[in-house]
Target: Class I SAM-dependent methyltransferase
Amino acid sequence: MPARETRQASRGWWDRNADDYQREHGGFLGGAVGARFVWGPEGLDEAEARLLGPAGSLAGRAVLEVGAGAAQCARWLAAEGARPVALDLSYRQLQHARGAAAGGGGTAPFPLLQADAAALPFRDGAFDLACSAYGAVPFVADPAAVIREVRRVLRPGGRWVFSVTHPVRWAFPDEPGPEGLSVAASYFDRTPYVEQDEDGRAVYVEHHRTLGDRVRDVVAGGFRLLDLVEPEWPEWHDQEWGGWSPLRGHLIPGTAIFVCEAA
Ligand SMILES: C[S@@+](CC[C@H](N)C(=O)[O-])C[C@H]1O[C@@H](n2cnc3c(N)ncnc32)[C@H](O)[C@@H]1O
Model:
């Protein structure tokens, strides 16, 4: 599937669905005040995980958030003293990022940019760190191109930490209940998941990569892989998110977080 078609579908889908998405998940993600940086539906919080660096190390760092959505992560980073830039393909998501979606003016205490993650509008080596919580990477046809671009705009030694749906989930129906526990498709089938409108145009697309594919993309993109974090479902957490649920979360991984360092 051509990258352009995926990009058009994603932009349209997130513009149309940003309001519902933020209504449903915005609170879990930290709300308008952005008190949290959550890596995925398991609720792993950067305040505890410190995958971008130890407490106190973010102050003054230039950080790019890729596929930022309403930029809750960037808000948390700014509160830690970092200098974030939040980038997203969807204008409506970015309106939520500046608190303008409700009709007010709204501002964000850091730059917001509408752009494609595969063509970053920054000079080489502009950032110390880059991060993405389910932003862009699971949705693009060519994630290797995104990773190469992130490498280009990072200084050597800079960290790039991104989370995606755990590749194992591809083989299971996207259902939170017991029906989501039986293998129904091949883990090795890279055919994208596509929803179409009545004219056959793609309106929602997700692209699958196996775990090995993702590791190869990271290494070929010029990174060392420092860690691959598979958050376990915490006992206290009873909130479902689509196909992510306590039932499935206790049995199979739902999120993969790649902790990389620019070589
Ligand atoms: C699941 S949201 C993640 C955002 C935020 N971290 C969250 O958890 O809500 C995915 C985001 O990726 C953005 N996105 C999808 N494709 C993109 C692309 N090619 N370039 C930049 N952003 C993209 C979408 O617009 C959307 O805001």
Summary: Residues 7, 10, 14, 29, 67, 69, 73, 88-90, 93, 116-117, 133-136, 139-140 surround S-adenosylmethionine (CB under 6 Å). DSSP finds seven helices and nine strands in the chain. The chain has a mean pLDDT of 95.
